[in-house]
Design goal:
CATH class of the largest domain in chain A: Alpha Beta
Pfam families (chains A, B): Pyr_redox_2 (PF07992), Pyr_redox_dim (PF02852)
Strand order of the largest sheet of chain A: 3-2-1-7-18
Largest interface: A-B, 62 and 62 residues
CATH architecture of the largest domain in chain A: 3-Layer(bba) Sandwich
Protein name (chains A, B): FAD-dependent oxidoreductase
Distance between the termini of chain A: 45 Å
Keywords (chains A, B): FAD, Flavoprotein, Oxidoreductase, Redox-active center
Structural class of chain A: alpha/beta
Oligomer: homodimer
Family (chains A, B): Belongs to the class-III pyridine nucleotide-disulfide oxidoreductase family.
Cofactor (chains A, B): FAD
Radius of gyration of chain A: 24 Å
Largest sheet of chain A: 5 strands, parallel
Strand content of chain A: 25-35%
Number of helices of chain A: 12
Chain lengths: 491, 491
């Protein structure tokens, strides 16, 4: 860990290196032009004029502020245009007074001299001094060293270029797509490797584009962000939708034909023909630059920050988004939880603080929602294994309840699993698997976890009730009521 | 207010009056067989056997545990059978060991001698002693002394008999109903008096049954449970659906024809032809018996209880549901808020306490959700007028946000108005008017109000985010973010 820099906004050495003019303004340099970085830049600009703060953002790709979370829906055809996924283009940012430089990669951080080194598309390298540095380098998709992983027909879904390539391949292969080849014969086949959020969202996308879909994961059940018993419900629902699941088996090879294109995905004891393979294996923090600069990293490789989103021990170096670890409010531990919602908050906080306001990030409670076709999946708080790891003793209950009054049309069953701390009855987490409207009910859980409520507190919450929206006790309350009884019984 | 009774379960005088046998068990007597009363009975029976506690419930009607909230959907045709609205019939309760006596009215309470007087369908009157008394007499629909209010064709929607009568009339008049008369000509006309929850839900029901609907209310905007500016949004949306709204005008007369049947509804300066009139004017607590017995009532006429749902100053007399006033957690004041969700909780608490467990009702935060056709309406916390009445100074903001990521199909706009306390930033309330999925988002508001969160706390909540479910900041957080800025600006 590097030494703490002194406070204050004195102009650091090297500030004007590589630039032709000396500006009177302080300078904020942002590394990475997606959610966290550009939120920080936009928030600082909202609070300070260009005369007060110069803002330069470096992005190695072409796009800024895009929704990677939207890629599955773009591939599925729910979203038509690439631009729909771009919340704000580089040009739009520039019009708001931000100096955005795309195709410009930051290749080194030099905290001691408060400068970063960049390389632009033409290969020109430069140093740029900063008063405040924002590291928002995001995450790298996991690509295990499986034979064939770089074959033609294997697609990632990390950025818009990935999404575009996959979308083109899908349109070529899918019977309903333009120029589709499979209309007369059997449907094209997709194998999705990884059964987490990205994997199941991509499975939905491929199903909806007319593919026969196989999902392969080494875990015993899909969605390891759920307890296995809840993962079982997800697998069963996916199977009922016609998605084949191959669980508990690691991919050993992506088989290719003589033309070099993908033919099948193999595990130790099975072979799954594929016209197309999608990698949905999760990500790890992209922090090689930070590591090289001696900045503090956590176990996952994510940057460690303080509550103000300043890199620990480094004043005026800030970090947010998918490249940091966040503190879990229930355990006090930090974890890598790459989500756009955290990234946006981090950026807002960083921008406010750089502009002289005061804002802090209170940590997360581990909320996530997803869907595969009509199945909605949500979690917040701790899984059983996470609670145990944190030294917490708990009871669990699982209930089946309905989304609306039982007699109201469209009432759908949902399963709610809840963890409550032994003795205290404090809520520790909940998982929901159901149909419309199931997933967003987890927001009550997230809010109650943040407030440190007990399950009895939850039973007594004054939640919205009317027959089209809920039974008299919301499903979350039905689970809480049973959990409260379990806490009493457990002693 | 009567003197406090002593604690303990000593058998009171008169316990066996009117009964043939002396039982060894304590006796719980319930007055009123709907949500609060039967929840109390069922909960007590869950915890104590018939040998430990005898439970008698008196209900003057035919039904127990029915959903009055479901009547609009029964009339609309969403629910087919009357029985669908009955959660548990008298016979089902009896099979669970409850002595349910329908068509038996309680005509007097005698707290001094711990007994109640009943009159059955045959006119026979009896005294029944109790160890614990549960008053769950519900509420009475308001029926202002308007000329013609008792005419043929004027319907209330308080109980299942009302619902059945209205449903029959609708089927007779509506073009699509069996034996409908209006198929060839113009649609039948319904006037709904009262533009609160019941009124708008009935307006939807009548629209969906093919009626031309006029909604009349003396208030300037519908839904006085919202601030007027949010009520305006509701009125505009209803008008766009073809529902005529006549606001700011009191009904002066229900005009009848020579046959005695309804012809029109009149205000001081307008006349609205009607084949059918629905009264949706709200309710007042049904507490004449309690008042005659000297039990304490609040301003609305609702019974006042302690946290354990015991009538204030009266041990072993409990009250819950639509006949009590509930404490508002944000103001400390008691109000009459008749809702099935409160009634169920009250019953559960009362049953637990009578059985020797310990449970309390923490009060409400004023949550309510409703819909009219596809418009969803929700509130929690305080309106502007309520905050002012409570001595609270506040800022308000209103935002328009979308239900899903903007690029995701089905993203619908919603308006969120939020009140935050001046200086502290404490959340005081929110109102939501939008389309699917808008209303249940208020549950986060309800939970945050219960926890005493500030609007900044809400901005930082770890709510569920994925494009099909939410923008990166949930609409409630978009409002909270603006509210936080308004609090800072207000100083």
């Amino acid at each position: 860990m590097g030494p703490a820099r002194t406070a204050g906004h004195a102009r650091p050495i090297g500030h004007t290196e590589g630039r032709g003019a000396v500006s009177a303004a302080r300078r904020m340099v942002v590394v990475g032009g997606d959610a966290a970085g550009m939120s920080a830049a936009a928030q600082a600009r909202r609070l300070l004029s260009a005369d007060e703060l110069e803002i330069i953002a470096f992005e190695r790709g072409d796009d800024t502020s895009y929704s990677a979370c939207g890629i599955p829906y773009w591939v599925a055809g729910d979203v038509e245009e690439r631009d729909d996924l771009v919340a704000r283009s580089p040009e739009e940012h520039r019009r708001r007074g931000l100096d955005v430089r795309t195709r410009t990669e930051v290749i080194a951080l030099d905290p001691d001299r408060s400068r970063v080194r960049t390389r632009d598309a033409g290969g020109t390298e430069e140093w740029h001094g900063y008063d405040d540095l924002v590291i928002a380098t995001g995450a790298t998709p996991l690509r295990p060293p499986i034979p064939g992983i770089d074959a033609e027909g294997v697609y990632g879904v990390q950025d818009l270029a990935d999404g575009e390539a996959l979308r083109k391949a899908v349109s070529r292969l899918a019977p309903d797509g333009p120029g589709g080849e499979g209309g007369a014969g059997s449907p094209p086949r997709a194998v999705v490797i990884g059964a987490g959020y990205i994997g199941i969202e991509m499975a939905e996308a491929m199903v909806r584009r007319g593919f026969r879909v196989t999902l392969v994961d080494r875990a015993p059940e899909p969605m390891t962000t759920l307890d296995p018993d809840m993962g079982t419900l997800v697998r069963e629902a996916m199977n009922a939708m016609g998605i084949e699941t191959v669980m508990g088996r690691a991919v050993t090879e992506i088989e290719t034909g003589e033309d070099g294109a993908v033919r099948a995905v193999r595990t130790a004891d099975s072979r799954h023909p594929a016209d197309l393979v999608v990698l949905g294996l999760g990500t790890s923090p992209r922090t090689a630059l930070a590591e090289a600069a001696g900045l503090p990293l956590g176990e996952s490789g994510g940057l460690l920050t303080d509550r103000a989103m300043q890199v620990r021990g480094h004043r005026h170096i800030w970090a947010g988004g998918d490249c940091v670890e966040v503190e879990h409010r229930l355990t006090g531990m930090t974890r890598h939880i790459p989500l756009g919602t955290h990234a946006n908050k981090h950026g807002q906080i960083i921008g406010s603080n750089i502009a002289g306001e005061y804002a802090t990030f209170p940590g997360v409670v581990g909320t996530a929602v997803s869907k595969v076709c009509e199945l909605e999946i949500a979690r917040s708080g701790l899984l059983e294994a996470e609670a145990t790891e944190a030294g917490l003793q708990y009871v669990t209950v699982t209930v089946e309840a309905t989304s609306r009054a039982g007699y109201y049309p469209g009432a759908r069953p949902m399963h709610v699993k809840m963890l409550a701390e032994r003795r205290t009855g404090r809520l520790l987490g909940a998982q929901i698997v159901g149909r419309e409207v199931a997933a967003k009910r987890v927001d009550v859980v997230a809010t109650a976890l943040t407030a440190g409520m007990t399950v009895t507190d939850i039973v007594m919450l004054d939640l919205g009730y009317a027959p089209p929206f809920s039974p008299t006790y919301d499903p979350v309350q039905v689970a809480a009521r049973k959990a409260a009884a379990a806490v009493r019984a457990a002693g």
